[in-house]
Automatic annotation (TrEMBL):
The keyword Amino-acid biosynthesis does not apply. It is a peripheral membrane protein. Belongs to the THEM4/THEM5 thioesterase family. This is Acyl-coenzyme A thioesterase THEM4. Its EC number is 3.1.2.2. It is an enzyme of class 3 (hydrolase).
């Protein structure tokens, strides 16, 4: 197996695949604020014990807003280009369910490029609950999938997850800063082997081994 974690200079431009690209810093502040507000709304709706009249009023207001916002929608597959801490660019779908900038269903996860991979911190509320007070195992896998995919993309080039094995070592708590990290371990042709971890209070709660397959490019 060849070990080569040097960044690949040639990166696919999503525009070449017919996908629109939005620059991260061109997303209006009003939209960022709305995303944050709706994230809080999801948490509020999930946990409310408000009376029926209040619920009916909120329901009508939300439905009216849906109609207004749906009057102008982005294309499915719209990508966002963002700069990861050290100046490295990353493309991702703007609605990516784990890290999409405009997706209120995505936890506010910003991964930064570090030597050999990525890392970031996220705190999850009850929207991501599985067992009482704990993060759902599917979301733990989703966070790790995003981290290994992102590490592979910035250290080599973008790809798809072919295999993801998750070990759940300890319960992962809600309302606690979680450190997410991933490192590229080795590469072999289009195969990229990546490991990932989630830590709470410095202890590993979940870890993953993944195989990413890079999107084929003109490299023989
Ligand atoms: C277009 C846009 C351009 C811009 C791009 C920007 C993108 C964003 C970038 C960055 C952000 C990153 C954040 C994302 C994170 C989340 C990722 C996900 O959730 S991905 C969704 C879940 N995964 C799937 O749905 C995959 C479904 N499977 C497939 O599509 C195929 O099976 C695929 C692509 C994985 C492989 O298919 P093949 O036809 O391309 O490749 P073959 O020729 O079969 O395999 C190549 C090598 O890999 C091995 N391989 C393939 N699959 C394997 C497996 N499951 N286990 C072991 N080896 C496998 C093969 O044995 C072969 O190895 P040998 O080079 O011959 O040694």
């Amino acid at each position: 197996m060849t070990v080569n974690t040097q960044p690949v200079a040639e990166r696919p431009d999503p525009r070449a695949y017919g996908l629109p690209v939005v620059e991260q810093d061109q997303i209006p502040d009003e939209l960022r604020s709305l995303v944050d507000g709706v994230r809080n709304l999801v948490d509020a709706v999930s946990n409310t014990e408000a009376d029926s009249a209040t619920l009916a009023e909120a329901d009508a207001a939300v439905r009216a807003l849906n109609d207004r916002l749906n009057a102008a929608r982005r294309e499915v597959g719209t990508m966002v280009r963002r700069t990861m801490g050290d100046g490295t660019d990353e493309f991702g779908t703007i609605t990516n369910v784990v890290a999409g900038t405009t997706n209120p269903a995505a936890p506010p996860l910003d991964l930064e490029h570090v030597e050999g991979g990525v890392q970031g911190t996220v705190t999850l509320n009850t929207t991501y609950q599985g067992p009482p007070g704990l993060v759902h195992g599917g979301w733990i896998a989703a966070l790790l999938d995003q981290a290994v995919g992102s590490a592979s993309a910035v250290e080599t080039s973008p790809g798809m997850t072919a295999k993801l094995e998750v070990n759940y070592r300890q319960p992962t708590p809600l309302f606690t800063p979680l450190e997410i990290s991933a490192r590229v371990r080795s590469t072999e042709r289009r195969k990229v082997y990546v490991t990932g971890q989630i830590r709470a209070h410095g202890q590993v709660t979940a870890e993953a081994e993944a195989l990413m397959i890079r999107i084929p490019m003109d490299e023989g």
